[in-house]
Amino acid sequence: MNSFDIRTKIYFGDNALDRLTDLPYKKALIITDPFVAKSGMLQMITYRLNDGYTEFEVFSDVVPDPPVEKISIGVKKMLEYAPDCVIAIGGGSAIDSAKSIREFATRASKKETALIAIPTTSGTGSEVTSFAVVSDPSNDIKYPLVSDSMLPTEAILDADLVKSVPANVTADTGMDVLTHAIEAYVSINNNEFSAALAEKAIEICGTFLLRSYLDNNDTHARKKMHVASCLAGLAFNSASLGLNHGIAHAVGAKFHIPHGRANAMLLPHIIEYNSGINKHSKSRKDYPKCVEKYVNVAKLLGVNNFNEITTVRALTSWIQFMLKEMNVPMSVSQCGVDRTEYFNAIDSMAEKAISDACTATNPRVPTKPEVVQILEHLYE
Ligand SMILES: [Fe+2]
C-alpha cells in the first residue's frame, strides 16, 4: 500500500506574503540568518505581523550547513520564548534550522507549534519537505533528518523575496531544483503523483532557469523557478532522492562546496552511471529501467534524439551546456580544492555517500569502488 498527501498549505503568487497579516497565531519566533535580518526582507515580514497584531522575536543566528550546536541554541531560545508559531525565512539552512529547532523544542516541551516556511531562494524545496539537513563539522558529516513531524504547516512562495538573489546563487539553487526533480523521477520510490510534480518542475527548469540566471529583472522567470522549487520539493518528499544527493552531501560536508553546485557537477556523472550510457555505448535492448525515465526527462527539456543512447547522451550534454552558460564549475578542481587533499578523502567520502539516507532510493545500487570512480572523475 502506498499513500500520497500534501500537508503543507501553500500560499503563492503576487502578494502571497499578505498571508502574514491574517495569521491565527499570536506569538511568533522568526528564525533566519544575519543576512536576511539586516536586509529589507525581514521588514517585509515584520510589518505584516505588526498589521496582524502578531507579536514576534527574531533568532538570527542561522549559519550555512547548520551545525548541531546552533540548533541547540535555537531550541533554548524557543523554549524560553514559547511561541505558538515559528516563521522560517531564508534559504535551505534557515528553513532546515527552524524545522530542527521546532522538532526538538516540541519534544522537550510537548507543546505543538505551527511552522511557516518562507523561502528566499528557489532551490531546496525545504518549505514542503519532511527533510532537514544538519551538520556535524567535527566529523565532516551532514545528517539528513527525516520525519513527517518536521513538515511545515504553511509555505509562502513570494517571488518578491528572490528578486535580489545573485546570479551564481540562482544557478546553484536552480540546478538543485533540477537535480531534485530528476532524482525523484528515477527513484525506486517514484509514483504517479511524484512523477507528475517532477515532470512539471523539470519542464519549468528547461524554460526558465537560464532566463532567471541571465536577467535579474525577469520576474516572470523567477516566479516560475520559485514554484518549480516547491514542486520538486513535493516530488522528492514523496519519492526521495538518490546517489547524486548522497555524494553531494559527502563532498559538501568535507570541502564546503555549495550544495546546489555539488549536485550540479555530479548530475552528468550520475546519469551516466545510472543509465550505463556513455560516449562508448552501442545500441542495445537491455537498458536499465531508468533509461526510459531519462529519455522522458530529455524530452521535457526539449532535448530529443533518434534513439535511447543518443537521447540520454544529449541530456548529459544539455546539463553540461547549462553549467557552462551559468558559469557553474564542472569539476571539483575548478572549485579550487587541493588535489592531494581531495584524493586522500575519497575513500571516506565514498563510505559516507553509500550510507547516506538519500542513496537508498537510487535506481542502481552503488558499490564502493563505483562511487570511488565517480568521485575520481568528479575531480577533473
Ligand atoms: Fe538538494
Produce the secondary structure layout.
Blueprint (H helix, E strand, L loop, with lengths): L8 E4 L14 E5 L2 H5 L1 H12 L3 E5 L8 H14 L3 E6 L1 H18 L4 E6 L11 E6 L4 E6 L7 E4 L9 H20 L5 H23 L4 H21 L3 H13 L3 H17 L14 H11 L7 H18 L13 H17 L12 H12 L1
The site of fe (ii) ion has 6 residues, from helix 5 and helix 9.
Offer a few descriptive terms.
binds fe (ii) ion, 13 helices, Dehydroquinate synthase-like, alpha domain, two-stranded antiparallel ribbon, alpha/beta, Rossmann fold
Element pattern in H and E: EEHHEHEHEEEEHHHHHHHHH
What is the spatial order of strands in the main beta sheet?
A: 1-8-5-4-2-3
Q: Please identify the top-level CATH class of the largest domain.
A: Mainly Alpha
Q: Which percent range fits the helix content?
A: 40-55%
- Approximate shape: globular
Instruction: Please tell me the overall pLDDT.
Output: 94
Name given to the CATH architecture of the largest domain: Up-down Bundle
Number of helices: 13
Spans of at least 5 consecutive residues with low confidence: none
**Which small compounds were modeled alongside the protein?**
fe (ii) ion
Any idea of the CATH topology of the largest domain?
A: Dehydroquinate synthase-like, alpha domain
Largest sheet: 6 strands, parallel
The class by helix and strand makeup works out as alpha/beta
- What name goes with the CATH superfamily of the largest domain? Dehydroquinate synthase-like - alpha domain
- The radius of gyration computed from the alpha-carbon positions, rounded to a whole number of angstroms, is 20 Å
